From TrEMBL:
InterPro entries documented for this protein: Arylamine_N-AcTrfase (IPR001447), Papain-like_cys_pep_sf (IPR038765)
Keywords, comma-separated and alphabetical: Transferase
Protein name per UniProt: Arylamine N-acetyltransferase
Pfam families xrefs: Acetyltransf_2 (PF00797)
Keyword Disulfide bond (UniProt): no
Molecular function per GO: acetyltransferase activity
Domain of life: Bacteria
Protein family per UniProt: Belongs to the arylamine N-acetyltransferase family.
Organism per entry: Nonomuraea turkmeniaca
Length: 284
């Protein structure tokens, strides 16, 4: 993979030959979270994707983002290329009101062998694909953790024997996530990826959602409603295509240079029509 290009994309070219360390892992995680948005606009653009980490990495290098299979898949390839002892796991995100389970709707990453003062065991939960959750890695140790305005709990899972449960902040977009410790490869997610990209019941199909986390909160765009949780909290509806694409570029760092003017116009019409349906009381 283009490791140097990836590091340039997230603003850390100096880490190309840097030593493997907990400090550098944290720097990689934060830079990736802050510069690569959580997004699934390829679905709304009618562009099929796969869960291949190298394909995802090339798309990210080209200025786009992705959702968990893309973001964590690509980051695992980057970290492995840099020498980190990275493992992929099958997880399950529990939406609010739903049941917990290992549903394979989430790819989870752990790293080991990186002891630090706050984590002498050296194992870490690494997750770039939870949208409005982690800003930096968590020690893979049971406890309560605060990152910016959000408080998280990591505890033994009740549905994955020997695994872990991540409880999101009460203000977060989902309730929690469970994962087992068995290693897996990307083929474990192919079927669920197809479902999430095509099923009318998929949240990615129903709503064009984009999120970008920073140290003080998270910006979120659901359809045409732009909101922020944390410092500078607010909410506004983007009523024109110009405002929408300006928000993508300025807030979510998504200039969509790979999307033609005709594609942008078609996407805007789809988003606007979906927003009107939502205003009329249709499904969100």
């Amino acid at each position: 993979m283009n490791t140097a290009g990836y590091l340039r994309r997230i603003g850390l070219p100096s880490l190309l030959n840097a030593p493997v360390s907990a400090e550098n892992l944290r720097a990689l995680h934060i830079a990736h979270i802050e510069k690569v948005s959580y997004e699934a606009l390829e679905i709304w653009l009618g562009r099929p994707t796969t869960v291949d980490p190298l394909e995802s990495a090339e798309r990210i290098i080209g200025g786009r983002g992705g959702y968990c299979f893309h973001l964590n898949g690509a980051f695992s390839a980057l970290a492995t290329a840099l020498g980190y002892d990275m493992t992929r796991h099958v997880g399950g995100v529990q939406n609010r009101g739903g049941e917990p389970g290992i549903t394979a709707n989430h790819l989870v990453l752990t790293v080991r062998g990186l002891p630090s003062d706050d984590n002498p065991g050296g194992e870490w939960l690494v997750d770039l694909g939870l949208g409005d959750a982690l800003h930096e890695p968590l020690p893979l140790v049971a406890g309560t953790y605060r990152q910016g305005p959000f408080e998280y709990v990591l505890r033994p899972s009740e549905v994955a024997p020997g695994g872990w449960r991540f409880d999101h902040d009460r203000s977060g977009s989902f309730q929690g996530m469970d994962f087992g410790l068995a290693p897996t490869d990307m083929s474990a997610f192919a079927e669920m990826h197809h479902h999430l990209c095509t099923s009318p019941t998929s949240g990615f199909v129903r709503v064009a959602s984009i999120q970008r986390r920073d140290a003080w909160g998270v910006d979120s765009l659901r359809g045409l409603v732009l909101s922020r949780i944390g410092a500078g909290a607010n909410s506004v509806t983007l009523s024109t295509a110009q405002d929408y694409y300006a928000a993508l570029a300025d807030i979510f760092l998504l200039p969509l240079d790979d999307v033609s003017a005709a594609e942008k116009e078609k996407l805007w019409r789809r988003l606007h029509d979906a927003h009107e349906v939502w205003l009329a009381g249709g499904p969100a």
